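User: Hi! I have a protein structure encoded as tokens and I'd like to know what sequence might fold into it. I'm fairly new to this, so please keep things simple.
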């Protein structure tokens, strides 16, 4: 699968043989995976929300693939955060999918606050 990741590879010389012109290297690969998953509720700190284009502080992650897809639950607006943008300004999830409860709103009664 595809995920939002950052990786770093390094190669260090361990030994060399000058008689037959061979070298031994130690290779290291470091992979950092985005901790935000699909259906997580994320909290964007106010400076980060402003830097990403004036987003609201609470958003739902509706996709975690080659980018993190964020959904504003109040307006339905979506936003995509690329891997480069995520690791420049990382954020974490406030609640993951098992901690959240799905519910359906059956009826809405608007309140008239002007009339008291």
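Assistant: Happy to help. Inverse folding works backwards from shape to sequence: for each of the 116 positions I chose a residue that suits the local structure. Here it is:
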């Amino acid at each position: 699968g595809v995920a939002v990741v950052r990786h770093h590879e390094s190669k260090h010389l361990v030994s060399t043989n000058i008689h037959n012109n061979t070298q031994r290297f130690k290779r290291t690969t470091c992979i950092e995976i985005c901790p935000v998953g699909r259906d997580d509720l994320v909290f964007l700190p106010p400076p980060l929300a402003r830097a990403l284009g004036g987003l609201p502080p609470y958003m739902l992650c509706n996709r975690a693939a080659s980018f993190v897809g964020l959904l504003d639950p109040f307006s339905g607006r979506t936003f995509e955060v690329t891997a480069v943008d995520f690791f420049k300004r990382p954020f974490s999830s406030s609640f993951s999918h098992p901690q959240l409860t799905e519910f359906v709103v059956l009826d809405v009664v608007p309140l008239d606050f002007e009339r008291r």
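A useful reference point when you look it over: The mean pLDDT is 87. Feel free to ask if any position seems puzzling.
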